[in-house]
């Protein structure tokens, strides 16, 4: 039981004994730095149930706690705040209890119900870009946090591998590619296919201009440009299963998948299962027909099928066109149901998709609830804002979007430049330097993005993110490396328990209190689907450790028992940093 839970019971017991009143809740907060105490009870909310002066009430409760709770050594009251001082032995008992837990803060899977987390979900007509990076980092981190909180998790994506945009790349390659391949060009497969998507767009615009110049209205020209009509014909052939078109589609998508796999590996994310839109785009129509019979949906005069969500503050939404073809909503309904069929233990899903789709997911979740699926109560849209870059930085090959591979390389280069300026790499081999630049660069990128609440838009500055001071990934990585240096110099960390009679320095106690918060932070981050809570907890822990490091002698301590404890405490802080960063998908270097 946590200290707060334990004290809650004792405060309720005290009020019952002293005032014959049953408190429903007890409000706590950390004790302010300028007052003595480890945890504070806020007395003011009690005045709704206990009549009297808050200082007197707090004083009586404090006296009761000192008398009846062994771990409470003394109390003081400041206005309506009861500050409680906890015995050092309590914190040392806690430390001994977790010392051998290398995964302290993680919960082994307890639930039989699984959660499926979807992220990435790219189109196969271009490389992954900056927006995909935020998507992947958020989705992967949330999946890891959910696992650490005790949930069973499936990581998935749905690959948008069909449609007119895919045919545009295919057609342009046929027309202009002259048999070019990733091998012959030296380009990653996704970049090569993206090159022909841009080539299609260029040719399309040229044809529109020619038609307009010949007297065709622009709107008509946009619909009748020959290259667009050819792409539409190619899509019809694909849907009809034309051997030649399907063969080209498989070949070019194969190039893209190889390219994506390289990017995912470099970014450090993975998936347990994959779905393809070419397999799922027909799903959902039978579900809609069944829902129509049950009155969930209604049919309009033209034969199209809709759902009325006006009672929920939304509007009417189409789910089948008048010709019987599906819309994206139909496909998403069918895909969600298919996933539960494939994995019957799923009792919830998390969709990592940008905030421009907020309305779509409100509608999707409502429809699934109205169709009567119990797991529809546990659906969550992990909505996130855009990522912007300072103007002029890192233009992509096409000059319009920043692709993921360019950004990852840029981060490694930035880390190399700043590390060399700081001169911290004496004695490193070239291979070790290269690996370190990668660890620092990716750590900077991931931390900068994940420390921000997902819903907020981000202005990402590469140089600012690779700062070795402040709330950055490299600052935390550097502190971890410093701890490893302490452990190497100490040579023997020791495995014996710490004597609970040891007098704690104020900085040691503050550090132990921060470590105590980690399991609670993991659970809170899982409940809120928020990697930012983990990131900012880790920064607070590192700040606390650096304050301890600056004010308390570790290896220079002459008392062997104190020295041993401080080394062990440093080791545990390092383990928690590593565990927290693992949830963010960030590596920590042994030295920097």
TrEMBL record:
Membrane among keywords: no
Arginyl tRNA synthetase N-terminal domain segment(s): 5-86
Catalytic activity: tRNA(Arg) + L-arginine + ATP = L-arginyl-tRNA(Arg) + AMP + diphosphate
Residue runs in coiled coils: none
Entry EC no(s): 6.1.1.19
Major enzyme class: ligase
Subcellular localization(s) per the UniProt record: Cytoplasm
Motif stretch ('HIGH' region): 122-132
Subunit record text: Monomer.
Family as reported in the entry's similarity comment: Belongs to the class-I aminoacyl-tRNA synthetase family.
Record's protein name: Arginine--tRNA ligase
Organism, as annotated: Flagellimonas profundi
Name of the gene this protein is made from: argS
